[in-house]
Amino acid sequence: MNKTLLVIRIGFISMCVVASWLLCYTITDWDHYRTVAVMMGGLIGTLIVLVDVLLKGFSLRGLSALTFGLLIGVVIAGLIGSSPLLEQGNAEQIYLVRLALFIICPYLATVVALRGKDEFNFVIPYVRFVPHEVEVPLVVVDTTALIDGRIARVCETHFLGSGLVIPSFVLTELQLIADSSEPVKQARGRRGLEVLNDLRKIKGLDIRIHQSEVARRQDIEAKLVYLAQSMKAKLLTTDVNLAKMAQFQGVQWLNLHALEKALRPALLVGESIELELVKPGKDEGQAVGYLPDGSLVVVNNGRAFIGKRVTVEIIGALPTGGGKMIFANLLGEVAAG
Predict the structure, then answer these.
(1) Count of domains in the chain?
(2) Strands 323-330, 309-320: pairing kind
(3) What is the pLDDT of residues 102-154, one digit of tens each?
(4) Across the beta sheet with 234-236, what order do the strands follow?
(5) Are residues 206 and 315 in the same domain?
(6) What percent of the chain has pLDDT over 70?
(7) 285 and 203 together in one domain
(8) Cβ pair 170, 195 in contact under 8 A
(9) Residue 198 sits in the same domain as residue 253
(10) Phi, psi at 315, each rounded to 5°
(11) Close Cβ partners of 192 (under 8 Å, ≥ 6 residues apart)
């Protein structure tokens, strides 16, 4: 429980007790019932706090729907009660019917209003209530995804329309990696912190820090999967073992490697592309260049143009474990030059 809220509730109950005690001084006849009054004040304050606890999660939309339903129910009950249908008959029976109407109609109208997913702007012009059932898709981000860095570039494009949930123990682990004495780990941790700052700078990006801790570092993976399950969120990670564990538990995995592979352009035989030749190839006269997605391009008769940007024509492609190996020839005018 929130400590501030606990203090407010205790203060409210105390105020009810004090108010009941002071009330005995105002009403002379109650002077002998001071103890009973104090107990009643404390009881009333406690009951009100219990109602407050029971209303936890009750939104502004719910309060608006409740008020609207009560109002419509009272209007309907009043219209039926004052209609010619109840003008004649036994007075006691008419009274009971009207009483029943004023109980049943507001109840039914309130239930319909609370269950409904519609907005109220069609009933009350210029007033718009956000539906209580609207949920934002969530993605739990782990340490490896932050260190990887591609998440920031993906979020900058606004293709990822989900709220990013970053557990506090992930931030702690990232800080520990950044403070490591090993230069490689330290660089990875600092890059993760830089990516986190880049994410904070993206306008309109929904970032949520989930306050959750783990006793042992070995429990981090299990806690990530548990959080994703409990929040009905997806898991964003580059750790294949963690991803397999998540999939086994029924948690969907967002694979950045698969996304990058899907975004690679499909190059066709006969298509012309530009690239820079960076080193010699294995066979005589060959030179090697790379596409922006990391695909290797082997260019025949291109060794003389290493260090230059040339235009080549694709003649074939060979799938490999790391992507594609593309074979190409220099275009005629480049080769002649």
Answers:
(1) 3
(2) antiparallel
(3) 888 888 888 887 765 444 444 444 344 444 444 678 899 988 888 888 888 88
(4) 207-210, 163-167, 138-141, 234-236, 253-254
(5) no
(6) 84
(7) no
(8) no
(9) yes
(10) -115, -10
(11) 143, 146, 147, 149, 174, 177, 178
